């Protein structure tokens, strides 16, 4: 695993690359890093959209309080 | 094979976690299964940490609304993946309350994304009937990996209910991919013999011996024996299919320990199966024994094989080197299997018989003592003499002098056998 591949993968894995991945090519590791990046991005986007939709369902009376809990 | 993690299975779990196709991650199969498991654990942490603060706030906000409304929001707005992320952050009894208002299909979809370790208390408090319904959904969707992840977290009542809800094939496939292999023994302990009988029959009819033998590799020795006995009580076709699977998938290292754990009657039935008499099958059995040092497993089988098959094994053993014979002798000593070894050694060709004789001649006093005692108890003096015949006269005299210090009845019986075989140097040294 080259330093470049390690640099690309590290942030997607929370700051450290586990051992044992040396058998994979740089191309494979970069591809995996891209998949992880998309998975995290999609999760965050879905969460934002879900919260917006949830606030529409919550009774008007509670909406302000819940918004405050969620967004401070 | 205990502790072995299949790279292919681990890749499927990793792919599931990040929403990718397993085929797109096939290159990971070149790695050790444990490496992929460790990587998945790290990715799980990353995904759960990505929106952790916001997810925690969602869990806090959920406390303010009725469980029924939380369920509606979960189903309509959040969907199964995000609900799975929140589940472990909820108070367990609250999470169960909400789950009671959600349809089973939704809960099953949620289960696909849940990391059971992060929601263990919630899973443990789920009502058995709900768990059974979810298990049925997951089994229908062939989500065995997901089911396997839950096994160690369910209450006993829920596990029993789930076992009733899935068919034998699903059960085998789930056990094969179970997350914590040490839970397999507890799972098997919950199944009555009638169900285990059916599962074994299914291993045969659905060609799932790879899965079934992996299960047998992870149960206790007592369970392995009991399951082996149940298998041995089935029709020839069932056992023949196991032999075929062992041959084609190189599974003798899993089968031989099962055979060893069986009762003597079951072992005999296995040893006399026509399907294991073929030279090709015997060769693969011996190869597996040599590769994984399964000599004790082989030695308990040998005396039960029909004469022709035993002679074939003896002929195949001609290729063994001194190192392998030394391993076998050491195993016979440690596992108290001298009678099986000596009877087998007497059937070996001249060359390997000489190697065995040399090993006996060079053995330590305690090894020799245990060998002589076992041979005497089993009345195998003639077989031992047939082996020692291959030693040169000087070695026979040397060994005879050592053996002469054994108990009188042992020396007397051996002398008789040596005289009958006209093994003069050995006999003279014994009586000197």
Please describe what this structure looks like.
The complex is a heterodimer of chains A (72) and B (432). Chain A has 3 helices and no strands. Chain A has one domain. The model of chain A has no long low-confidence stretch (mean pLDDT 92). The N and C termini of chain A lie far apart (43 Å). Chain A has 72 residues and is an all-alpha fold. In chain A, 71% of the residues lie in helices and 0% in strands. Chain B has 29 helices and no strands. Chain B is elongated and about 100 Å long. In chain B, helix 8 packs parallel to helix 10. Chain B is mostly helical and 432 residues long. Classes of the chains: A mainly alpha (72), B mainly alpha (432).
How does the SSE layout of this entry go?
The complex is a heterodimer of chains A (72) and B (432).
Chain A: H1 3-9, H2 26-57, H3 60-71
Chain B: H1 7-18, H2 33-50, H3 52-62, H4 67-87, H5 92-99, H6 104-113, H7 120-125, H8 128-140, H9 144-150, H10 156-165, H11 168-176, H12 183-189, H13 193-205, H14 209-217, H15 221-232, H16 236-248, H17 252-261, H18 264-271, H19 279-291, H20 295-301, H21 307-316, H22 322-334, H23 338-345, H24 350-361, H25 365-378, H26 381-388, H27 393-403, H28 408-420, H29 424-431
Helix pairs in contact in B: 1-2, 3-4, 4-5, 4-6, 6-8, 8-10, 9-11, 11-13, 11-14, 13-14, 13-16, 14-17, 15-17, 17-20, 19-21, 22-23, 22-24, 27-29, 28-29
